Amino acid sequence: MNAEIIGVGTELLLGQIADTNAQHISTALAEIGVDVHRHTAVGDNPKRMTLVIKEALARCDAVIITGGLGPTPDDITREGVAAALGLELRRDPELVALIRAIFKIRNRAMPESNLRQADLPAGARAIAPEGTAPGFTLDGPTGVIFALPGVPWEMKAMLEKAVLPELTVRSGAAAIVSRQILVLGLGESLTHEKIADLVDAQTNPTIAYLAGKGQVRVRVTAKAGSQANAAALIDPVEEAIRARLGPAAVPGDHDSLTTALPAMLLARAATVAAAESLTGGLIGVELTRGPGASEFFRGSLVCYSDEAKRDVAGVPQSVLDRSGAVSEQTAAALAEGAASRLGADLGVAATGVAGPGEQGGQPVGTVFVGACWGGRTVARRAFTYGDRDNIRALAVTAALDLGRRMIEGTA
Amino acid sequence: MNAEIIGVGTELLLGQIADTNAQHISTALAEIGVDVHRHTAVGDNPKRMTLVIKEALARCDAVIITGGLGPTPDDITREGVAAALGLELRRDPELVALIRAIFKIRNRAMPESNLRQADLPAGARAIAPEGTAPGFTLDGPTGVIFALPGVPWEMKAMLEKAVLPELTVRSGAAAIVSRQILVLGLGESLTHEKIADLVDAQTNPTIAYLAGKGQVRVRVTAKAGSQANAAALIDPVEEAIRARLGPAAVPGDHDSLTTALPAMLLARAATVAAAESLTGGLIGVELTRGPGASEFFRGSLVCYSDEAKRDVAGVPQSVLDRSGAVSEQTAAALAEGAASRLGADLGVAATGVAGPGEQGGQPVGTVFVGACWGGRTVARRAFTYGDRDNIRALAVTAALDLGRRMIEGTA
């Protein structure tokens, strides 16, 4: 079974919002084994919207539309679906009563225009509103259509209650299981080089890459009759990939170091602290993204000036004088200062030049990271490229990965 | 002139990432007066991708494609564009040399497969790579095509350098000028309440709202024959809006406090330091997003534990004992500690409960912010709601806004 997702709303085409609804629905459909073939976003324009719906219906088994179900004149998804299928709109008396009741309960006067929300293409069944906008579902000649509101929480609730159960039944879904292997320090092309023959040899499970911020995720996805059977298909492939990648592959199933490093710390009842300059606080932010960070995170010393590196993080003035603020030596001293001043087991640090201008004779992108763990300190140059944001993100990844390798004993 | 945007990548259809590229490009095109009629996302499937590109070309003047330009076998946008236009792929010798040079400079071995990135549809002109992936542009029989990498920072850089200038020329755009009024502490509906009649009375300039992270941007956009004439249309409307909003409106044309507060500091040759707990380093990150941060930013003390608040930021133990770590008093002491320990003119601080669990009897979302400036310290409770991410973002905004008001003398 395959599906397409259509987002309706001129605000999408003006870039005022991103189509996160399409992402959410796609994730949910992948989990029940429905293949999504296309996302489309179209504005509040009757002709173009009708065309988009008509085309999607001709191509796939299920079309899920979000947005355009409100009461204002620019909400025209009801009309668009009706026109695409050559149907009339009919006012649903039960919906009229429901909409009037909702306003009565809220003690608000109902503008008559709100009754437009009770109009449905002939043959459609209403999906009860979560806010005030009803959704609907309709069996077309070639596939099923679901129309949901664009407000994310209303859309999500209807998806759970009305769309996923229906599609699960219709698709007779087999189980789909995905597992990720997080790879650091190799980059996408080197990762691919090492496992290309495994990728080429596979059709089930399939293997895909996702790269960003210096991290590559190798995603292994299997389809089978049950979750257990799908997992059993993944196991040997995962093992083979990990054998090729060695210590570049992070143990466990992780999206990023943001979850991987905390898991390693928690497993050892260990704590971490950071000292950072060019990253401005990003190392601390990454380590505190998830809940429960106070269990393992002590703090971060963001030291933008030499004085702060000396007075706050305890970098010896002699190191700053001899090697400079952007150096292996300073990165090492920052990591040690963070661990000792904040009382943590692991200290991680980054210092460097984020740009756009050079700094103290060092070119943009020069970054050193450091880490100390169990009486050992290691510092090294990090590989970075791109603009200021990217250099900062790569510096964070390099610092956290050095911390990870220190704990694993592979640094 | 109208355009469509195509995002390529199975990861989009699996919901692993949202198509934020389409949003970014749409915003940029709206600013130069190009109408976007459709966004499409399609997977790494040759047949379906080719069809999507062919259809888009038939409908509009410009097609911008992102993604699928990497070196791995699933990167097939080059092939997709060539097939859609019935062209052959040719290996561009200059790009081959460039790709080899990039790897050489980085001192990395180049997998031969990377040379696929030098293949271009016949007649296409290369857009120089920002990372390692070149983009390209091609004049089709009905319109122009741009193919850009999917990695956001690479895409954004190429859009600025190669796409927008070209489309601006081709569209013969009349001048469009936008100016933003940043509003803090009111929220979108209160902001609207205060200026609704001004909004309703306008057609040129138009007035739109954009809200997020506790900040509302009122965007005033005018079209005219020249930049100067467009600006002249905006002036009186901006003045009227500012008169209504008072100190909630930040002076100048700013996207967010991330640029507004640094501008105020630089204008006074003043510096800032932060001390933060629940925000984990986000205040430092916000203040260092732009270039030149070392001119005004000293650092941030990220103190997740009580010990760190005391030892690193100098919060008196008596304050922690009497009022607790999440309190007005601690927020005030953190701001003062940041300013004194890091030697800054302005100190800002945030402490609170980001959730998901309560902390020390304080419910999720309890946040206090503090600031000190010119011998005066102020602390107050910040209004927050939503999930962990949102609470942290609102805490940052509240802390920076308190700093802004301290400098302006309106706190």
Tell me the layout of helices and strands.
2 copies of one chain form a homodimer.
Chain A: E1 2-8, H1 10-13, H2 20-31, E2 35-42, H3 46-59, E3 62-66, H4 77-85, E4 89-91, H5 93-105, E5 119-121, E6 125-127, E7 135-139, E8 144-148, H6 152-171, E9 175-184, H7 188-201, E10 206-212, E11 215-224, H8 227-245, E12 249-250, H9 257-267, E13 272-276, H10 282-287, E14 297-303, H11 306-311, H12 317-323, H13 328-342, E15 346-352, E16 367-373, E17 376-382, H14 388-408
Parallel strand pairs in A: 1-2, 1-3, 3-8, 13-14, 13-15
Antiparallel strand pairs in A: 4-5, 6-7, 7-8, 9-11, 9-12, 10-11, 15-16, 16-17
3D architecture notes:
- Two copies of one chain form a homodimer.
- Chain A is an alpha/beta fold.
- Chain A has 14 helices and 17 strands.
- Chain A has helices at 10-13, 20-31, 46-59, 77-85, 93-105, 152-171, 188-201, 227-245, 257-267, 282-287, 306-311, 317-323, 328-342, 388-408, and strands at residues 2-8, 35-42, 62-66, 89-91, 119-121, 125-127, 135-139, 144-148, 175-184, 206-212, 215-224, 249-250, 272-276, 297-303, 346-352, 367-373, 376-382.
- In chain A, a hairpin with a 7-residue loop joins strand 6 (125-127) and strand 7.
- The mean pLDDT of chain A is 93.
- At the A-B interface, helix 2, strand 2, helix 7, strand 10 and helix 10 of A face helix 1, helix 2, strand 2, helix 6 and helix 10 of B.
- Strand 14 (297-303) of chain A pairs antiparallel with strand 14 of chain B.
